[in-house]
């Protein structure tokens, strides 16, 4: 089950109670069936959809680009956890740039205008990004579980973290592969209204619904149920461990920092799960042919897809709200201040120019104090 497949199976056009000429269930088809009185054709609805998708794209681009920028620019942000967070941001950026604009255009036009190559690439890219996000969230939870619950002081090295990130992309590429392979770009004739339009839809072997259902159920388990189960178990164990932990007074700050970071990362997972749950439930019901005859099927699909896509910009907001380093870095960027080597949690910044003045012992005749 790919999270966004803007396929438009025009075989399922219902016209005034006429015969349904369905060729089978396209499991990711937001336009199935297409009705003459399609509510998404109303101007007010289209304006609302354009506004919603545009805001998601804008916020996602700005927020996730800033996260990546901070992690690789600021020295004390280059930690294993932050590398994984940057990987999450990269996956969300892929959705914002390669998927959402095409999805919006296909939803509004009811015709695939972007050719055969993009017909295969767009649903694949979004499925790939969602798999990467889920796998990365799982890796973050397991790494913190390993270090906190078992008191392993040695964190993953930078090389090891980059290797794990590469493996998550490779595994995600395999899981998303069927959405690129079993795909068809064709022209569909609609005789009774003398129309010929380009269609991009799933085409599974045997021409039946069975393969689509099997893939959807498999992805529901691998992309949602199993990962969230593992993540939930890890964070519950971490929270219990930190809550009951007794340490010397000089380690209280470290324990509090771990608690805050764990709370932030757990909230990221909760937001992801809440955003994607309605879409997964709706998609499964669609694959089982339980809701395809609803008059507002296309609108419902689009609304649930918008809710799911909100997860692409919420993470930077959570980081800025719950983490001082990210918050201070965001503020520095928007204030156009000097690029720092290090962000200090209390809000002070050590810049390259300040370090140079300290080394030279000069600051317009005044002593310089490092902060």
From TrEMBL:
The lineage of its organism: Eukaryota, Metazoa, Chordata, Craniata, Vertebrata. Its main location: membrane. It is a multi-pass membrane protein. It comes from Pygocentrus nattereri. Keywords: Cell membrane, Disulfide bond, G-protein coupled receptor, Glycoprotein, Lipoprotein, Membrane, Palmitate, Receptor, Transducer, Transmembrane, Transmembrane helix. It holds the Pfam family 7tm_1. This is Neuropeptide Y receptor type 2. Belongs to the G-protein coupled receptor 1 family. Residues 63-319 form the G-protein coupled receptors family 1 profile domain. PROSITE patterns: G_PROTEIN_RECEP_F1_1, G_PROTEIN_RECEP_F1_2. Residues 1-24 are annotated as: Disordered. GO terms for molecular function: neuropeptide binding; neuropeptide Y receptor activity. It is found in: Cell membrane. The keyword Plastid does not apply. GO terms for biological process: adenylate cyclase-inhibiting G protein-coupled receptor signaling pathway. The chain crosses the membrane at residues 47-72, 84-109, 121-142, 162-182, 213-240, 261-279, 299-322. Residues 1-13 have a biased composition (Polar residues). GO terms for cellular component: cilium; plasma membrane.
């Amino acid at each position: 089950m790919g999270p966004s497949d803007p396929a438009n199976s025009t075989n399922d056009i219902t016209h005034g109670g006429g015969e349904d000429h369905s060729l089978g269930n396209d499991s990711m088809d937001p336009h199935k069936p297409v009705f003459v009185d399609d509510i998404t054709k109303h101007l007010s609805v289209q304006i609302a959809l354009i506004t919603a998708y545009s805001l998601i794209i804008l916020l996602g681009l700005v927020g996730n680009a800033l996260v990546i920028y901070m992690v690789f620019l600021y020295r004390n942000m280059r930690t294993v956890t932050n590398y994984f967070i940057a990987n999450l941001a990269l996956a969300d950026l892929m959705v914002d740039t390669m998927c959402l604009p095409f999805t919006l255009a296909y939803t509004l036009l009811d015709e695939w205008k972007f050719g055969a190559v993009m017909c295969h690439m767009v649903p694949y890219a979004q499925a790939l990004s969602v798999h990467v996000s889920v796998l990365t969230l799982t890796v973050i939870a397991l790494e913190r579980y390993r270090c906190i619950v078992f008191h392993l002081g040695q964190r993953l090295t930078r090389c090891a973290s980059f290797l794990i990130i590469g493996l998550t992309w490779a595994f995600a590429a395999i899981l998303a592969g069927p959405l690129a392979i079993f795909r068809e770009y064709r022209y569909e004739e609609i005789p009774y209204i003398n129309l010929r339009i380009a269609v991009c839809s799933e085409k599974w072997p045997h021409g039946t619904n069975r393969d689509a259902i099997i893939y959807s159920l498999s992805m529901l388990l691998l992309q949602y149920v199993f990962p969230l189960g593992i993540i939930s178990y890890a964070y519950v164990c971490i929270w219990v461990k930190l809550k009951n932990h007794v340490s010397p007074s000089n380690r209280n700050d470290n324990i509090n920092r771990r608690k805050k970071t764990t709370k932030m990362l757990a909230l990221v997972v909760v937001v992801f799960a809440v955003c994607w749950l309605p879409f997964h439930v709706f998609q499964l019901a669609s694959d089982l042919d339980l809701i395809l005859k609803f008059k507002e099927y296309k609108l419902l699909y689009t609304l649930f897809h918008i809710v799911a896509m909100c997860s692409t910009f919420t993470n930077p907001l959570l980081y800025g709200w719950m983490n001082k380093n990210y918050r201070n870095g965001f503020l520095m960027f928007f204030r156009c201040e000097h690029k720092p080597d290090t962000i200090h949690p209390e809000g002070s910044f050590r810049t390259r120019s300040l370090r140079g003045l300290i080394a030279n012992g000069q600051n317009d005749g005044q002593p310089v104090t490092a902060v």
